Structures are given as structure tokens and as C-alpha cells.
Amino acid sequence: xSLSIGIVGLPNVGKSTLFQAITKKEVDRANYPFCTINPNxxxxxxxxxxxxxxxxxxxxxxxxxxxxxxxxxxxxxKGASQGEGLGNKFLANIREVDAIVYVxxxxxxxxxxxxxxxxxxxxxxEILDMEMILKDLETVEKRxxxxxxxxxAKAKDANLEKEMQAIAKARKLLRQGESLSETQWSEEExxxxxxxxxxxxxxxxxxxxxxxxxxxxxxxETFKKNHWPYLITDVLT
Length: 237
Fold this sequence. Notes:
Elements: E1 3-8, H1 15-23, E2 40-45, H2 49-58, E3 67-72, H3 87-95, E4 99-105, H4 121-153, H5 158-175, H6 187-193, E5 203-209, H7 217-225, E6 230-233
Parallel strand pairs: 1-3, 1-4, 4-5, 5-6
Antiparallel strand pairs: 2-3
């Protein structure tokens, strides 16, 4: 089973350009917001020298490499969790992937339309985080309400109680505005929460789209201090 990675970000930050660079697949990259509506999907083989050696040892003409599926998802805007922009569609697409790459705009190219009044990678990250947090909170609130009714209707049920504990922990964190991936979970808790495809439980990587000179030392230090895995690269060149 291949790994699926979603490429997310605000409109016009370079998501489709990154997708095309990775997959070599031609996609529409017009210079206006919401150029991407339906997600673009591309599959890339992960070349592995071990496969080549095994093929030599077994005299096999066929080599089967593992693959990674990349999904270029429509741009998100503030209020997406309430349906703004392509919000609900965007968030539904994220549920289907295993991990997320945030593309955050650092570059200041004036010929590329900016949907915001200024460029700030932390503000962009916070917008993306908060919309996913709010959507996850909606999910766990509904499940918590249903569990409370089930627990009242049934005699002592250990499985339901464990699920309620995990859901309650997630709800508390989400209400505090925290992404669930930044919290330590037991294997049992992970198993329970993974049933709900929670957006903020997914592994995240941050691509800061620009040059080293486009991002301040202060902003870079914030990523380092919080152990947010990131890479600074200009995907437009």
C-alpha cells in the first residue's frame, strides 16, 4: 500500500508548482486564487538500490518499487471549517491522505497574486492549523455527544469508556487550539482516534516557499524551537 501525501496551503502559494515538480505531471498553474478545484493526483516511484540488487540476484526482469501518491489539494482560506471558499471539499480531501505538506509563502514576487495583505509564514500556518482544528473539534464533539448517550444507555462498557477517555482528551486539546499531532498518545489512543481520520493527527512537514533571504531568522527559529520539520526552498525557480 503506497503512502499518500496531501499538499496544502492558502491560494497562490505554490502548491501546484510543487506538485508538478515532484510528479512531472502537467497541471493548471494559472495566477489566480482557486485555480485548483478538484485535487490533482500523481504517483511517484521511490527508487531503491536494494530492489535493483535483488533483481540481479534473482535474475528478475521486473522491478516493483514502492510508490508515493501526492495529492494537490485546493487552496484553503480562513473560515474553511465553516464552508468558506472550497472549505468543506478541501478538508474532506485532506481526510483521505496519510500525511500533509504545508506549503507556506515566503517569496515576495509581486507578479504572483497574494490573497493576503502581507507575507507571514507563521500566520499562514496558524490559519491552516486552526481550520483543521475546528473541523476536528466538530468531529469529536459529535462523537462525544453520541458516546455519552451510549454510556448512559448501557451497563458498564470498558471499550466505550476507553473511547470516551480518548475523545475527551482530544476535545480538551482542540478546544485549547492545539493540533493533536503535537501530543503524546498511547498506541491504544491512536488506534481509537485513527477511526475518525482526524486532520490534526496526521504527520506534517512544512515547506517554506522562498529563499533563505525571504524568511527572517526569528521565524526560522520558531520552527526549530517547536521541532516543526521544515525545508526552505523556492519551488517557483
